[in-house]
Amino acid sequence: GAGVSQSPSNKVTEKGKDVELRCDPISGHTALYWYRQSLGQGLEFLIYFQGNSAPDKSGLPSDRFSAERTGGSVSTLTIQRTQQEDSAVYLCASSDLYGGSGANVLTFGAGSRLTVL
Amino acid sequence: DQQVKQNSPSLSVQEGRISILNCDYTNSMFDYFLWYKKYPAEGPTFLISISSIKDKNEDGRFTVFLNKSAKHLSLHIVPSQPGDSAVYFCAAYFGNEKLTFGTGTRLTIIP
Using a CB-CB distance cutoff of 8 angstroms, which residues of chain A are in contact with residue B97? Predict the structure, then answer.
């Protein structure tokens, strides 16, 4: 598609359940990023993929969080045993890494709003 | 540690006047700075960028100024329009590293 697509747009779950959030990046973009924005906070980096590998996972808050990317395209962020503090908007972005403009411009999806009750 | 800081959580500006959004950073290694704009329930959208070797970049109503000695950048919007009401994020990166964002400034344009 023309933009970054994320699903679901909204997810309400009970504490302790697992959730999966999906990101479909712009076709041809080699880099894919996950960020999250908690209420009243800025954008917090979670993980970055170059192709299918993740050179930087430093932002994952705990081992309950994991992500994978397959075929250099779709990525899934999985949160196991969700906690209330996991409630946030999870944003995915992709980029073609300096595709001519000089700057690495990330294009974001609309996000997946996760609410943990 | 907050490497990119936006110390003003909110700003109100009269329509037609200049809006100035500020951003400070601590990492002198940053080589690119970007501004993003975010409407509610949407992802951030890219506005304008500046390389660390420049001190000014202009794109229509938007101009970004970089003062490396002060580790400070600012975004000027002139003239401000109602559609500019949004949250603005400053971001920076170096090399192949991730984009580090500030906490955002909510800009409200008063008609």
Answer: 56
